[in-house]
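Whiteboard transcription, Tuesday session. T.W. wrote the structure tokens on the left side:
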């Protein structure tokens, strides 16, 4: 069951990343409008980071589908989705923040059930098997 959820979540992230890349100008316009409203996240490096989110989601999805570095990807996914959800809530874009909340809940669930990750080609698991 864990593997099915991990792969489906990876597919969801891949398609979400592809959709945001296809609609990249609309995504960037939404983020630019959100940064004008934001009081907390008005830092320059954060704006540059946010423009990379669709590509990061695509990469996270591929790693989850393939089962590479699953635990590390899930840790960074939790951080990414928590940051993005807080940013969107602060700027008043609640509908997209709910999507990020769903991604966050799935990421946390997969992270804490990582001991069920038996069907992946995880680097740490392979290293453990060789020791």
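and on the right, the sequence the group agreed on:
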């Amino acid at each position: 069951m864990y593997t099915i959820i991990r792969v489906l979540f990876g597919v969801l992230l891949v398609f979400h990343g592809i959709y945001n890349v296809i609609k990249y100008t609309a995504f960037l316009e939404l983020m630019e409008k959100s940064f004008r409203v934001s009081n907390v996240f008005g830092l320059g490096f954060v704006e540059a980071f946010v423009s990379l989110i669709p590509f990061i989601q695509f990469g996270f999805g591929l790693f989850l589908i393939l089962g590479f570095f699953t635990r590390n990807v899930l840790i960074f996914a939790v951080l990414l989705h928590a940051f993005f959800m807080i940013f969107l809530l602060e700027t008043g874009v609640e509908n997209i923040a709910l999507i990020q909340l769903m991604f966050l809940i799935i990421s946390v669930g997969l992270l804490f059930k990582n001991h069920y990750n038996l069907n992946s080609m995880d680097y740490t698991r392979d290293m453990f098997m060789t020791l």
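Someone added at the bottom: The chain has a mean pLDDT of 82.
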